[in-house]
Recover the amino acids of this structure.
């Protein structure tokens, strides 16, 4: 089954404790991205990657890092989480050509930073 | 990307058709019209997209006005599972600068389906 998976689905952590949210897709997609969703602000893109070893900032990259060492994986790293990063996070992927078409989203990771 | 305007909420009865409108009066000639939906506690899900002609797929139909300044997502027979927030999004396929894959989600239309 074609899918985007994220782990963990729920995470509660404390300020400053480094964490990684994993994202993996099994569709051989070149393009992957991370969004965060906050009430009243909608979904906003954090980082994206056009292919292996190619990443770039989205609209709200501060406080986040990403890496793309393999095509299927695109982890989101919070080196020193803060409470304002409490949010619902979604990973998405598509074919490069699919920028004109469909993006597939993961189920989401709900992060709480205390 | 050009902006879209959608009603905040709509209601429908189960098994009746639903027409979800979207206005995009500043649409450019290279903007595709995309629709996504987000069910409660889930990630966004692609529904349909089109450029000029009406489009049909297994989930829905997309009717695009002749001047392309508006479009309508049509769910032919609403089910309880169709209750979600529906987003109308414009994608400029010629905009390869910056974060070209970024989907700009507005507030969308919250669709409620009554049994």
């Amino acid at each position: 089954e074609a899918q985007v998976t994220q782990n963990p689905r729920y995470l509660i952590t404390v300020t400053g404790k480094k964490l990684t949210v994993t994202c993996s897709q099994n569709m051989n997609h070149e393009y992957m991205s991370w969004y965060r969703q906050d009430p009243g602000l909608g979904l906003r893109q954090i980082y994206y990657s056009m292919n292996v070893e190619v990443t770039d900032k989205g609209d709200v990259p501060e406080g986040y890092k990403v890496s793309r060492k393999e095509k299927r994986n695109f982890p989101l790293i919070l080196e020193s989480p803060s409470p304002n990063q409490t949010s619902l996070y979604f990973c998405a992927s598509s074919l490069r050509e699919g920028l004109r078409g469909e993006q597939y989203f993961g189920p989401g990771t709900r992060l709480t930073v205390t | 990307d050009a902006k879209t305007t959608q009603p905040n909420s709509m209601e429908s009865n189960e098994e009746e058709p639903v027409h979800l409108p979207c206005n995009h009066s500043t649409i450019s000639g290279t903007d595709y019209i995309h629709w996504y939906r987000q069910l409660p506690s889930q990630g966004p899900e692609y529904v349909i997209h089109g450029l000029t002609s009406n489009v049909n797929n297994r989930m829905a139909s997309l009717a695009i006005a002749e001047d392309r300044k508006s479009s309508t997502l049509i769910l032919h027979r609403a089910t309880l599972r169709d209750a979600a927030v529906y987003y109308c999004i414009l994608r400029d396929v010629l905009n390869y600068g910056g974060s070209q894959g970024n989907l700009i989600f507005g507030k969308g239309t919250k669709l409620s389906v009554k049994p």
In short: The mean pLDDT of chain B is 90.
